[in-house]
Write a structure and sequence with these properties.
The protein is α+β, with helices and mostly antiparallel strands and about 210 residues long. It contains seven helices and eight strands; from the N terminus they run E-H-E-E-H-E-E-H-E-E-H-E-H-H-H.
């Protein structure tokens, strides 16, 4: 049975919470992947507002959890960044546990991670990994995913097909969210959200 999992961690224990507090701007994690060297890479979209890309980059300096950051693109008042994380981070442990990232949000001083656990044992594995590296967390939610109607839109099928054919689900990935978005002439945010919804529907239909 597939589970929806939510965990909370202190905002100062993850770069997303730190940057969100510093900049007070919408920050979206579009994708999390492992590169060919085994490093965790985050594809991140930040709405600039009145800030310059340089000020955004300066806000990343000194965050221990980040080992690298690069600007991928600046378009339409948004900056797309690739952020590399150190081993032992929250994201790296999510990947190691076999859970899937869905979304992240702030709730007061806490950061809430919304994940999919293919099995309950994956949720337990994530808890064990976080405890092992000393990251404080609380279990907010662990419930079976409710079964939907199993109907996938034509757009979801198209995006999933491009992702599958391009090796999006391989390790390391053969194609990323940016390449899918470019091929289909849509935004990276649309690709990321559509993939999450489509994957959830497939999991619900086949495994629940």
């Amino acid at each position: 049975m597939v589970y929806e999992l939510e965990i909370s961690i202190p905002g100062d224990k993850h770069w997303w919470g730190i940057i969100t507090s510093k900049l007070a701007l919408p920050i979206n994690i579009l994708d999390i992947s492992v590169d060919r060297n085994g490093s965790i890479q985050n594809l991140v979209e930040i709405e600039l507002g009145e800030l310059s890309p340089i000020k955004v980059l300066n806000s990343l300096i000194g965050i221990e959890e980040l080992e690298s950051f690069n600007v991928s693109d600046v378009v339409g008042g948004r900056v797309i960044l690739i952020l590399g994380e150190t081993s032992g981070s929250v994201s790296s442990n999510i990947m190691l546990s076999g859970c899937f990232f869905r979304s992240i949000r702030k709730n007061g001083p806490k950061v809430i991670w919304n994940l999919i656990a293919p099995q309950k044992s994956n949720a337990q594995e994530l808890a064990n990994l976080l405890e092992a590296v000393g990251i404080p967390f609380n279990l907010v939610r662990l419930v079976p995913l409710t079964n939907g109607n199993g109907v996938m839109t034509a757009r979801q099928e198209q995006i999933l097909k491009v992702a599958l054919d391009g090796g999006y689900f391989d390790r390391p990935k053969g194609i990323g969210v940016r390449e899918i978005a470019k091929e289909l002439s849509i935004s990276t945010a649309t690709v990321s959200e559509t993939l999450r919804r489509a994957i959830r529907q497939v999991l619900e239909q086949d495994l629940v």
